[in-house]
Amino acid sequence: MKVDIIGDVHGCYDELLELFTKLGYEWQNNTLAHPNNRIPVFVGDITDRGPKSIAMIDFVYKLVIESNAAYYVPGNHCNKVYRYFLGNKVKEQHGLETTVKEFLALSKKERKAIKDKFLELYEEAPLYLELSEVNAVIAHAGIKKEYIGQESKAVKTFVLYGDITGEKHEDGRPVRRDWAKHYTGEKWIIYGHTPVLEPRFINKTVNIDTGCVFGNKLTSFSLPEEKITQVSSKQPFVKEKFNPIT
Prior knowledge:
By secondary structure, this protein is α/β, with parallel strands linked by helices. It has one domain (3-241): Metallo-dependent phosphatases (Purple Acid Phosphatase, chain A, domain 2, 4-Layer Sandwich). The chain is built from six helices and 14 strands. The strands form four sheets. A five-stranded mixed beta sheet has the order 5-4-1-13-14, covered by helices on one side. Strands 6-7-10-12-11 form a five-stranded mixed beta sheet, with no helix packed on it. Strands 2-3 form a two-stranded antiparallel sheet. The longest helix has 17 residues, at 108-124. The relative contact order is 0.18. The model has no long low-confidence stretch (mean pLDDT 95). Residues 1-196 form the Calcineurin-like phosphoesterase domain.
């Protein structure tokens, strides 16, 4: 098995297509495929904040559900879009408002199609993905060694939001513990969620959310090669979005 794990896209569809081209993927029968049978894995947060969230839903649905040619695990933004599509009362802020604006601009028929696709994509997705063939676990905000194999409420919170303390910084960001510093497992943990300027390698973990939607880069991590591939963002650079974990 050979996989290319892709960091938080957040509606940056054009950059994603550029990254796929750089990785050697080609269009075949209206879907993307790799001549060496590589498999893309999305680490969550495919929507919100960026310019093309609806295109991302359609694209990832085609790859994961229709073509069975990719894997996807949800992120916290995915969870919020899911709850919005279910009709739950969700605050349209922190990026969700951009997805909602795109969604409401569609025709009634198009809205139903996109909503149905995303609901199926989310409901079919595992909370996190264990890939024993490449000795890896893909989880949106990471996962503790002792949580692997579990799906409790605590595990779900950790996987979607990170190791949060319940406190907040002055700017409203949640305070998070640096769980990766204490990771002692032998499996690779590949995650995103917290924007970093460069992929953050610590112990056998790597954060590949390099803040494409905030003007930095879109990153993939390939296994078993342990190779980083990146493309530059087309979005404006927002320096303050790149903060330390704590």
